[in-house]
Amino acid sequence: MSLRQAGGGFLACRWWTAYWWIVSATPVTQPTEAVRIPRELWVLVAAAFVIALGFGLILPVLPQFAQSFGVGATASSIVVSAFAFFRLLFAPVGGRLIARFGERPIYLAGLVIVAISTGATAFAHTYWQLLLYRGLGGIGSVMFTVSAVALIVRLAPPAIRARISSVYASAFLFGGILGPVVGGLLGNLGLRVPFLVYAVALLVAASLVAIFISGSALRPAEGAPVLPVLAVREAWRDVAYRASIGSGFANGWANFGVRNAILPLFAAVVIGKEPWVAGTALAVFAAGNAVGLTVSGRLSDRVGRRPFIVGGLVISGLATIVTGFASDLPVLVALSVVAGVGAGMLNPAQQAALADIVGRQRNGGPALATFQMSADSGAIVGPILAGLLIDHGSYPLAFGITGLITLLAVVPWLFARETHDVRHGAPTPEAPAGGEPDDLEATIAERSREA
Question: Does residue 159 lie within any of the structural domains?
Fold first, then answer.
């Protein structure tokens, strides 16, 4: 559920990554009623809802706001890509800052940076100012999203880790569904209004964390073991990891890039210029995403990851292709729901597959960061190319190429191993006992016999 706009898709991608990484990397056990969710995590849940609600406000209006400066579809799409580009550029630095100063201060600093950049966006007088402010927001975004992952991993009691992740991701999802609808309505008051409201929402979230999460609660446990690092070169030997890189790139291109950058423009040109039209399409996509997440999240632990990855890519790709031919709002809404279901099927299974590849005996930071960078790269390239295809071709052509990229990502998975092969002893909710080989080489040798 992915746990993420003009930039909002990237945030959502990080939340879902956090959620499914935590759930899938932990043995499935029955929750212990005596163990309560720590107060600090309830604060993060509340902050996640506020952030998602605020971020959703700008989803329907940012592309139109960019075009209000007299630029075309390509230039407005670059505004979305700039956010992802700065995320990609600053990700390694953000990780080092967290290691040096801790999660809480970097989380707070990230929220404040995005709040300032978003508030400045509302007062942009030129396209280049808009591009700069949104790009700087990407720096703060990667700071607080990565910090949030680390905070959840640090504070979640192992006995209820899955329950905590579910509550956290649900809060973000509900905020993400409600935000675009409210943002579309606020857009009728002026395209700058949603940015001001979002800036305030970020400051509210930062205040919640600053007041209710103390630094003392985050001190590392004494004598905590240091896990060996899974290098990207070692992970790359696994065909499932290579397939994940491809599907991550395609998913970033289609669902975290083109959909959020191009769909509002398409809705304005073909369906209606009112901001609520695009907001509705984005909101029902999120609703379909929730359905897909629920199904895939529960069943991929029982039957394996690959069926849901392949199925999600196929459904999402086909729905994206047909979207370019939508001529009225009901058809656009229906196709958005279907595409959301496909993306929802894909994301949890894909993140769980990455957790399977890394295992519990390794620090998967570099390998996971590379996967996330592949998704950001797709989210950068996709909107720019789609914008060019629109300016020199048509919307059906842009959506068609995007859907084709998504379908091509199916091919590597047809030859990849099943990372959670229940037939060969992978743990399930009904049979939680089971282990993972301690190193990737043993994993590949043991589970890829039928690949």
Answer: yes
